[in-house]
Amino acid sequence: MLFQLNIKNIALIKELNIEFDQGLNVLTGETGAGKSIIIEAINLILGSSAHSDLIRSGEDSLVVEALFHLSPVEKIPINHLQSAIKLVDEQGYLIIRREINRSGRNKCWINQNLTNLSLLQEVGNYLIDLHGQHSHQYLLDSSRHIDIIDSLGEEKVHAYRKELFNGYKSWREKKKKLTHLVQERQGNLKRIGFLKFQLEEIDKASLQKDEDKILEEEERVLRNAEKIIERMGKAVYILYEGVMEHPSLRDSLNEIVKSFGEISSLDHKIEEMREKLKEIKLQLDDLVYEMENYKDKIELNTQRLKEVEERLNLINNLKNKYGDSIEEILKYRETIYQELKSIDYSEEEIEILRVEINELTRQISEICLELSLERKKISQKLEEKVVQELDDLNMKKCSFKVNIQQATDPEGIKIDDTYYRISSKGIDQIEFLISPNPGEQLKPLSRIISGGEVSRVMLALKSILAQVDQVPTLIFDEIDSGVGARLGEVIAQKLKNISQNRQVICVTHLPQIACRAKKHFYVEKYSKNNQTHLSIGELSGENRVQEIARMLDGNQINNISLRHAQEMLERE
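^ thats the sequence. predicted structure below, dont judge the formating
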C-alpha cells in the first residue's frame, strides 16, 4: 500500500507530508481547495509526464517521494522486474522519488537506485490503479484483460496457465533451436559442397613437388628451341667440323698436338703441355658429343609447348586460389580434408527436435482450446455481473461485452488446419467492450469519453475483481461527480467493500463516502505573506463531524446538519 507521500514545491504546496492507512482513505475540501494537486503528485510517482510549470513559483525544482509497504502477496506481480533493479527490500518497503527541474534535468529513483521513466511507469502500474483520468488505469489496457479473465477462473484455469507458460517456453526454445540447426545444417551442406569442390579441383591436378619449376624450365626451352638448335649447330661446326678455309677447333688442336709431338723430346715441359692439350681435346670431344645429343633431343614441338603452358596455367590458377606454391596448395588441401571429416551434418538431432515440437504443439493446442472454453464461460458470467453492477451505479441498459478473438499467424501454432498467433497466455486476444447508452455501438473501454462513466465502470469491475486483483492501492478521483444521494450511497458501499481487501484513496464531495473512511483528510488553501499555500490534515472527532455537515449543507451548517453528520458517522 501507499504508506507515506511527501510533496515539495508543487504548485501551491511548499512542503506536505501525508500518511495513508489501509482500508478507505478520503480527501475532502471545498471546490478548488487543491485536492487535484495531490493526485497530480501521485501521478508523477507513477511515471506520468511532467512539466516545469508544476514547479512552485520562485523554486527551481519539485520533489515527490512515496513510501510503499508491500506484503509478500503484493510483491509477487513485480518479481519479474527484480533483475532490472532491486525494488523491494527485505521488510517489503519500496521508495520512489521523482525530481523535476526547470532546467529539464529530471531524475527518478527506486530505493535510491537511479532508474528510467519507462521502468518507473511499469512498476507504477503494479502499485497503484488511479481512476478519474485515463492514465494508470490498467483496466483500460486491453493487453491485460486476458489476465483479468483468467484471475476470475478457478484452480483449473490457473493450472492451465502455468502448464501453458512452461510448454510455450519450451516450444519457443525448441523452435528456435530447430531453426538454428536447420540453418546450421544448410550452412554445413553449402560448406561441404564448397570444400569438396576445392578438394576435387586440387586432387584432379595431381600436383608433384617442384613440378612448376621443372615445367617453367621446359617451357623456356620449348619456346626458344629454334634459337637453341641454331646456336648449338653453329658451335659444333666451329668446334668439330670446319672447312679447309676455316678449320675446326678440334682440327687445330690435333695440328698443335702433332706439332708439339715433334719437339717434345727437346724439353720435358713441352711434353707436359702436349699432354694437357690432348686432355683438352678429349674434353672437347665429350662436350661436342653432349652438345650433339642435347641438340638432337630438342624438338620444335608446338604441341608440347601448348601442353606445358596449359599445365602451368592450371598450377598458377590453383596458386591464386590456395597458396603461393605447390607446397602451400598441398598443405591447404590437407587442411580442408580434415575440416570435411570434422563437419557434422547429421539429421538425427533435427528429427528428434521435430518430434518433440510436434508433441509440444499437440499439448499446447489442447491447453489453448480448453483455456478458450473456460474463458468463454468466465466471460459470460463477468458480462452479467458487470451489467448488474453498472445498473446499481445508475448506468441503466448499459451493454458490456468480453470480446474473445484469435489471430492467424504463419509462424504461430497449428491447431487443426490453421496457424494461430500464440503467446504464453494462449491464442486468445481479449478486450472489454462497452456501450454506455442504448443504441450506441460497443467500443473499447479506453474510448469511453465521460470521466464519470470511466470511474463507474472501473468501480463496477473493481467490485467484482476485489478478491483476485493484485494491485494493492486504488485511487478514485471524484468518482462521485454529478451523483445524487441515492447513487452516492451505492458508490460509498461499493468503495467500502473494496477497501476490505485493498487500500482505497478517494477524492470525494459525497458525505456518504467520507463518513465510511478509515482515515479522513481535509484539504484547504490559505494565504500567508501574500502567498497562497495548501495544507492537509487528518480529521477526527468534532472536526470530522463539522466537515461531514459542511458536505451535507455547504457552509450553512446548523444543528440539524451536525446531528445528521453525527448519525451518519455512528451508523458507519
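The first helix runs from residue 35 to 45.
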